[in-house]
């Protein structure tokens, strides 16, 4: 059985898979374009980029695909408004907002005709977003990597959100294989977002060290970190996280003033950048979803899609019999 199309505003994705917008500079043009070329929705992570860098990534993605390309920006980022407006000026297909949202961004979307899709963690937030003008919502459970807004499983939250709103609902958190996709659709999802699986792809801009750490990690290696953003972050145990736990933080060598509000416990931008570029891993924070142990190979996006769709088809055939 073929998965349904995903409709968000005027956009129609032939395959209802959204690639997570992972910062810093993991989700760039090559990854987003590769996903879009397979019929999904590719996201460029704008957080941590300059305005010109984001514009350049959008243009590069446009050269690589005619598919759907969006931008994900962390609402807590100081340059949130400037980055979103820059993406709109470049004619991006949709905007995804992580870790919060504001009424202003829906007005920007309405005036430009670009769908706005916030990430939410409860039915209450989903209803608020719909009233403000969201074209869809991404519902993220505790299983997701990166900054989290809940301690509840996507399996609990998803049915509640689906009953509460009339816009498309995209499930996120712990979705790695075809079985996970089928389960999300059975719970009412109109689409799924996958981050960790695509971070471990050939086209991902993450360093080889980052990707190899994914392959080596077991379930017990996945931990929560108290992020200076003001939210818990799900990542992998490392020398750096052990230092944070033992010392309560890490010195900030140079503040780039990247957040609207920052606890200054450590520099989130520096830690994520070290992980992406494969720099000093004693200073690196590697974000990861809860089910990272399911990932056994670094694959091209095309092969990831082929396997996912084959797994979905096989599971649905088993259900019929």
Describe this structure in words.
It comes from Carboxydocella sporoproducens DSM 16521. This is Probable nitronate monooxygenase. One of its GO terms (molecular function) is nitronate monooxygenase activity. Keywords: Dioxygenase, Flavoprotein, FMN, Oxidoreductase. With 321 residues, this protein is an alpha/beta fold. It has 2 domains: 226 residues, Aldolase class I (TIM Barrel, Alpha-Beta Barrel); 85 residues, no CATH class. The chain has 12 helices and 13 strands. It starts with 5 loop residues before the first strand and ends with a helix. The mean pLDDT is 93.
List keywords for this structure.
321 residues; alpha/beta; TIM Barrel; 2 domains; eight-stranded parallel sheet; three-stranded antiparallel sheet; globular
Short structural summary:
This protein is α/β, with parallel strands linked by helices and 321 residues long.
What is this structure's SSE topology?
Blueprint: E1 6-8, E2 11-13, E3 17-19, H1 29-37, E4 41-45, H2 51-64, E5 68-74, H3 80-89, E6 94-98, H4 103-112, E7 116-120, H5 123-132, E8 137-140, E9 146-147, H6 154-164, E10 169-172, H7 178-186, E11 191-194, H8 196-199, H9 208-216, E12 222-226, E13 232-236, H10 239-247, H11 268-277, H12 301-320
Helix pairs in contact: 1-2, 2-3, 3-4, 5-6, 7-12
> Which residues sit in consecutive blocks of at least 5 with pLDDT less than 50?
none
Shape: globular
* Share of residues in strands: 15-25%
Largest beta-sheet characterization: 8 strands, parallel
Output the structural class. Answer: alpha/beta
Distance between the termini: 13 Å
Number of domains: 2
DSSP E strands, number: 13
Report the radius of gyration as a whole number of Å: 18 Å
CATH architecture of the largest domain: Alpha-Beta Barrel
Looking at the structure, the CATH topology of the largest domain is TIM Barrel
Keywords: Dioxygenase, Flavoprotein, FMN, Oxidoreductase
Protein name: Probable nitronate monooxygenase
Pfam family, one: NMO
GO molecular function: dioxygenase activity; nitronate monooxygenase activity
